[in-house]
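User: Show me a protein chain along with its predicted structure.
Assistant: Here is one chain, sequence first, then structure tokens.
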Amino acid sequence: MEQKRFSKRNLLVGLAVILVIVLVALLAVFQKKEINPTLGELSADPTTAPIAEETPEVSATEAPVVRAYLVVTVGGAMYEPIPLYENGFYTVRQGEDMINVIEVTPDSVRMRSSTCDNQDCVEQGVVSLENREKRVLRNMVICLPNQVSLELYTPEEIMQLMQSMADYAGEEGHE
């Protein structure tokens, strides 16, 4: 009797996990969000042509020294950390009317421009490794109308963030 309950529970958990995976996949298909930081474009519309505006380039012979990482979240979807090794720009495009331009340096980020009405995100200024502890939003710049947030991390903090996300995903799979 104990063995049957355990097997039924495992079956239910397995089916629940499969259902969650299918729902996430369907959500991703319908939202069509993607990232291609090598082209300088974060896009919610894959049919939009990528915009490469002074995007950082790396020499194949030199390994860049990364002092900071940028994590971009759009509409609740967190994208892979972008290493900051040179001055450049990234564009977050959600359809035709929601566009945010991010300016980066090796140790800072700022929202250079936005199509939002209030421009609070642009006025939040630069987040740098030096000033982020003194800022009200600390390491973040947030554009509420366009649902875009920027976070500046050190390499050590990125490792901790990635590890905590992996631990969280592992815990979900074992419940």
